[in-house]
Specification:
With 255 residues, this protein is α/β, with parallel strands linked by helices. The protein has one domain: Rossmann fold. Helix content is 36%, strand content 17%. It contains ten helices and ten strands. It has a seven-stranded parallel beta sheet with strand order 1-10-9-6-2-3-5, with helices on both faces. Ligand LXAUTJHC binds next to loops.
């Protein structure tokens, strides 16, 4: 059964997400040589990460950056300094401010970005970006995936609908090229369901009234044509949703 943590206040929501991340980190780090394998999403999640890992000093002091190996659940195939890049957004919101805060980042985190030199070339290079990224993933799965939820029910770059069904049906590749994305930019790479299946903890973060209708479809109607609802059904015991009241207010069923 999926766990839902719903809050009235956005600041409190960010703090709870931060506490959860630290909890997963501490569980993963058995000693000084172990690593915390985490993959994050882009979009609105990045601001939440700024609030809980940078601005919240109490939580920030508990982050063991040097032991983090950080990946992206999906990435837009644009240069890393493009405003659409998930890596670029994370760098701006978290890595850069940490650098300016002092020496906390001297030993990490290790951040795995796409091979930028292959961006904006032929389609075959898009496949290659996905393959190369897959080759970097941790062999024994992720300790934590931090996922977003678009107003259409997409997560990572797994979009609902016939046209993108090939991504949800992918059983072998762990990272796939998503083309003709309904949300720009058109070319992306995305984790597939096998990566989600292998992850020890999965958290969604969804806030704001633009998510109200989709929350109703996911939680009340349990519409499994939506990638987010499918993940709830398949991996529910490892799934936690962090939501705010604006996003969750149309959900009628108990959680
Ligand atoms: O395009 C994307 O959208 C989703 C959802 O973003 P949000 O701004 O609605 O939270 C995001 O999780 C994903 O990483 C991103 O590439």
């Amino acid at each position: 059964m999926v766990r839902v943590c719903n809050y009235n206040d956005k600041e409190l929501l960010a703090e709870k997400v931060g506490e959860y991340i630290i909890e997963c980190q501490d569980k993963a780090l058995k000693d000084q040589d172990s690593q915390f394998n985490i993959a994050i999403s882009g979009g609105s999640l990045v601001n939440v990460l700024h609030k809980c890992l940078v601005a919240n000093k109490k939580l920030a002091s508990r982050v063991k950056w040097s032991q983090w190996q950080l990946y992206f659940c999906d990435e837009r195939l644009v240069p890393l300094d493009d405003e659409d890049s998930n890596y670029g957004a994370f760098k701006k919101a978290v890595l850069d401010p940490l650098m300016h805060n002092g020496d906390h980042l001297n030993l990490g985190p290790t951040v795995f970005a796409i091979n930028e030199s292959l961006v904006h070339q032929k389609d075959s290079q898009n496949e290659k970006i996905a393959q190369e990224y897959e080759s970097l993933l941790p062999a024994d799965g992720f300790d934590l995936l931090l996922l977003g939820c678009g107003p259409d029910g997409h997560t990572c770059s797994l979009f609902p609908g016939e046209k993108h069904k090939y991504l949800l049906q992918e059983a072998h590749k762990k990272v796939a090229w998503c083309h003709d994305s309904p949300k720009p930019p058109s070319d992306r790479i995305t984790f597939t369901l096998p990566v989600i299946a292998d992850s020890r903890n999965i958290a969604f973060v969804a806030e704001g009234s633009s998510k109200q209708d989709i929350m109703h479809q996911i939680f009340d109607l349990q519409d499994e044509s939506l990638p987010t609802a499918l993940i709830n059904r398949n991996y529910g015991s490892r799934v936690t949703w962090f939501t705010d009241e604006d996003a969750f207010s149309k959900v009628q069923s108990n959680h």
